[in-house]
Specification:
Number of helices: 2
GO molecular function: DNA-binding transcription repressor activity, RNA polymerase II-specific
CATH superfamily of the largest domain: C2 domain
CATH architecture of the largest domain: Sandwich
Mean pLDDT: 91
InterPro entries: C2_dom, C2_domain_sf, CC2D1A/B
Protein name: C2 domain-containing protein
Low-confidence stretches: none
Radius of gyration: 24 Å
Domain C2: 31-163
Pfam families: C2 (PF00168)
């Protein structure tokens, strides 16, 4: 079936090129919806990596009396795997705004067959802390925290979210946007049906 679709598409493409070359009118066409089996896979990600991309912080609430242009912001992250040695770090510093763009990619190590990893995925969060950099004799100021729940990675290989920054249980103001990719979902492999709009020439 797929070979036939491919052959027909190549034939139609050659015909359209010839029509365009000759300046002829476009033949009648129609659309139909076709379904394809597909696997959720990020083929460019190593199977022993979790790729975290911290995209940006939006409208972080700065200390009273500060202007958005006074922002001097960075983000810390913490991934609770392995238990005995969390993988943590921080982004570069972005100054002059309370809505900094980072677009930083971090490769975190995972072991897909590890029971400990699955416990972390099901019970723990990937944690973020957003800071205003301190000045001379001033310590860094915590602007808000955010948690990324991970159980969805049992069904999906890609996660893209924007999460409210919190101060305890209260909204602190602002959001953090991030993406997570793994090679393929950590649970059982499942074929999904993907629907696509398909153009057919009526020749």
């Amino acid at each position: 079936l797929f070979e036939q679709w491919s052959s027909n598409s190549k034939r139609d493409l050659l015909l359209l090129r010839q029509i365009a070359k000759n300046g002829s009118s476009v033949p009648k066409f129609r659309y139909e919806t076709r379904q394809f089996p597909s696997l959720d896979v990020c083929a460019d990600v190593n199977e022993d990596h979790l790729e975290l991309q911290i995209v940006r912080v939006v409208n972080a609430k700065l200390p009273s009396g500060w202007q958005p242009s006074d922002g001097n912001i960075f983000v810390k992250y913490d991934f609770a795997f392995p238990h005995e040695s969390h993988q943590s770090g921080k982004t570069k510093l972005v100054a002059g705004t309370n809505s900094p763009e980072f677009n930083e990619k971090i490769l975190l190590s995972i072991k897909r067959q590890s029971k400990q990893l699955m416990r972390v995925i099901r019970r723990n969060c990937l944690k973020f802390e957003v800071y205003q950099k301190g000045g001379f004799l001033r310590s860094d100021r915590l602007l808000g925290t955010a948690d990324c729940k991970l159980p969805i990675l049992e069904q999906k290989a890609h996660l893209h979210e924007s999460v409210d920054l919190m101060e305890g249980r209260r909204a602190a103001g602002g959001k953090i946007e991030f993406m997570i990719r793994i090679r393929e979902p950590l649970g059982e492999k499942k074929l999904n049906l993907q629907s696509e709009k398909w153009l057919i020439l009526e020749t």
